[in-house]
């Protein structure tokens, strides 16, 4: 008579071997290239939305005294559009650096939560592999990376796919902020053309892609209401941190129910 437990052991071993084979197939150069290309094609529509937004930022930066070379340098080092707009709006001569650093930290505080949410999908990676990926993490790359894992029903982030997305977004952001800085003085106030609406449109697309039904949207609503109230009551970017914190608390409370 065959021991049932031995059958279980054989099944587990077979599953493990199958997973190992699958992992090895996923790591082949051919598959990596296809995943990279899939990331690029997925990010292309979002990249088009980046262009007017980047032009606005570049033009505004030059109006505040930045040079054409300094603009892409800033956007390349600090890859976070919201905090860059905040820094430029607070820029004076001489600049109040401590205020700019504090406001930049507040606006970018959402990245702490985003990074924590991305960690479960990166457990198969070492810290040496994870840290460069986190450098290129913006709202759009984060959302597309997690959404892709959910669509594939896996907790393993596809690194080539993510790099394809990040390469598209990062390069377009740096390049077109530089172009905006170069041509901004020639076309005047670019906001009169409605280019600044691109920022809102991009986030609406991201929310649509992450929609999981009405029952899960209450933390979004709480975060929105709290951020809106703080925006009108407090100066600076405190509404970003307040909205983020309120959304986290709401998610924790709602999750218990």
Automatic annotation (TrEMBL):
It holds the Pfam family AzlC. This is AzlC family ABC transporter permease. Belongs to the AzlC family. It is found in: Cell membrane. It is a multi-pass membrane protein. The lineage of its organism: Bacteria, Pseudomonadati, Pseudomonadota, Gammaproteobacteria, Alteromonadales. Its main location: membrane. It comes from the Bacteria. InterPro entries: Brnchd-chn_aa_trnsp_permease. It comes from Shewanella electrica. Keywords: Cell membrane, Membrane, Transmembrane, Transmembrane helix, Transport. The chain crosses the membrane at residues 36-59, 71-91, 97-121, 161-187, 193-210, 217-233, 239-255.
């Amino acid at each position: 008579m065959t021991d049932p437990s031995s059958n279980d052991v054989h099944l587990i071993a077979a599953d493990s071997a199958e997973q190992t084979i699958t992992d090895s197939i996923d790591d082949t150069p051919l598959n990596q290239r296809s995943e990279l290309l899939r990331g690029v094609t997925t990010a292309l529509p979002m990249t088009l939305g980046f262009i007017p937004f980047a032009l606005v930022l570049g033009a505004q930066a030059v109006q505040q005294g930045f040079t054409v070379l300094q603009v892409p340098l800033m956007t390349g080092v600090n890859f976070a559009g919201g905090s860059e707009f905040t820094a430029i709006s607070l820029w004076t001569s001489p600049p109040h650096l401590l205020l700019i650093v504090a406001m930049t930290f507040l606006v970018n505080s959402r990245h702490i939560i985003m990074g924590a949410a991305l960690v479960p999908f990166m457990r198969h990676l070492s810290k040496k592999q994870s840290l460069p990926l986190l450098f290129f993490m913006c709202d759009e790359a984060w959302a597309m990376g997690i959404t892709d894992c959910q669509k594939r029903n896996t907790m393993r982030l596809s690194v080539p796919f993510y790099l394809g997305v990040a390469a598209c977004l990062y390069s377009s952001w740096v390049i077109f902020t530089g172009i905006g800085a170069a041509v901004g003085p020639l076309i005047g106030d670019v906001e009169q053309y409605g280019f600044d609406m691109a920022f809102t449109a991009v986030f609406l697309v991201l929310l649509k892609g992450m929609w999981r039904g009405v029952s899960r949207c209450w933390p979004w609503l709480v975060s929105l209401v709290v951020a809106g109230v703080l925006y009108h009551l407090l100066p600076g970017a405190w509404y970003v941190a307040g909205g983020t914190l309120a959304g986290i608390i709401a998610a924790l409370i709602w999750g218990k129910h």
